[in-house]
């Protein structure tokens, strides 16, 4: 599945050479490209087809992306098949005509390279709208629930914070985040939660920390049990605004967090995210 994730990153960067390197020299693609390239055989043909696609069509999602991947999962065939579900919006460079697609792709991955790639998609309005999913039960769970969050960093080094509307942190400032949904990949869940809570489209980076949060009621029963995974994220589009689950949002200077009365854990996660960002730059 990592190969497929790497492919979509290369496609969103419009890098045909990097994308082609992930295909097997004897690969086949079906219905990935239009016209004469509907069926492509071989890495060189695929590189040429992606190059032609990038020359004519530019990504028109936030940050210039052409794909937002909503799910990547293995298929239980025993043959290395992976399914990726996605939405796409592109804009014709010569005319500014836009096109939107919603679909999925199947990949046969062997020895770390893509042998087969076939797609099925339907055209949708370019202004893509995803239907909200029902909220899952969080109080008194029967098993731990997985939550995802992020330290969203602005270009000038500030951090996005949200003031919670609901328990267990109602009325408190914290990092944005929420619950992973069934069948949703970690990166897709982070991107969705950041957009829902802050109005920001983000590029999800590396993991900062994994930890648990267990809260008991007066009788000693487990009221909440979360396993939380926090990432570093960078803004690629949108504008900071409070979503339905939060009362307020703010860009905060990491050197002046005292006024927000963040929990010590949140301050530690921010400090570690900043350290990782400096180390990797």
CATH topology of the largest domain: Nucleoside Triphosphate Pyrophosphohydrolase
**Could you state the CATH homologous superfamily of the largest domain?**
Nucleoside Triphosphate Pyrophosphohydrolase
Helix content: 10-25%
Low-confidence stretches: 129-133
Mean pLDDT: 89
Main sheet characteristics: 7 strands, mixed
* β-sheet strand percentage: 35-45%
Q: Please give the number of β-strands.
A: 14
- The radius of gyration over CA amounts to 21 Å
Please provide the ordered H/E string of secondary-structure elements: HHEEHEEEEEEEEEHEEEH
CA-based shape: globular
Describe this structure as you would to a colleague.
The protein is of the alpha+beta class and 281 residues long. 21% of the residues lie in helices and 43% in strands. The chain has five helices and 14 strands. Strands 1, 2, 3, 4, 5, 6 and 7 form a seven-stranded mixed beta sheet that branches. It has a four-stranded mixed beta sheet with strand order 11-8-13-12, sandwiched between helices. It has a three-stranded antiparallel beta sheet with strand order 10-9-14, with no helix packed on it. The chain starts with a helix and ends with a helix.
């Amino acid at each position: 599945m990592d190969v497929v994730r790497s492919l979509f990153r290369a496609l969103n960067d419009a890098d045909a050479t990097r994308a082609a390197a992930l295909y097997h020299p004897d690969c086949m693609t079906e219905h990935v490209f239009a016209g004469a390239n509907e069926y492509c055989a071989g890495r060189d043909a695929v590189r040429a087809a992606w190059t032609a696609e990038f020359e004519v069509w530019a990504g028109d999602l936030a940050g210039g992306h052409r794909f937002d991947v909503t799910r990547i999962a293995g298929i239980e065939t025993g043959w290395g098949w992976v399914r990726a579900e996605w939405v796409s919006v592109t804009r014709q460079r010569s005319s500014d005509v836009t096109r939107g697609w919603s679909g999925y792709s199947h990949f046969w991955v062997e020895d770390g390279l893509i042998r087969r790639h076939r797609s099925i998609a339907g055209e949708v309005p370019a202004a893509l709208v995803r239907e909200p999913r029902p909220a899952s039960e969080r109080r008194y769970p029967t098993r731990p629930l997985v939550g995802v969050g992020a330290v969203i960093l602005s270009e000038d080094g500030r951090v996005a914070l949200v003031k919670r509307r609901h328990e267990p942190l109602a009325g408190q400032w914290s990092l944005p985040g929420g619950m992973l949904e069934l069948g949703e990949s970690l990166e897709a869940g982070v991107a969705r939660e950041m957009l829902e809570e802050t109005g920001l489209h983000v590029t999800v980076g590396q993991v900062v920390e994994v930890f648990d949060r267990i809260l008991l009621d007066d009788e000693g029963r487990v009221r909440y049990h979360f396993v939380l995974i926090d990432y570093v994220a960078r803004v690629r589009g949108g504008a900071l605004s409070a979503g339905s689950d939060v009362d307020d949002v703010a860009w905060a200077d990491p050197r002046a967090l005292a006024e927000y009365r963040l929990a010590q854990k949140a301050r530690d996660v921010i400090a570690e995210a900043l350290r990782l960002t400096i180390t990797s730059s």
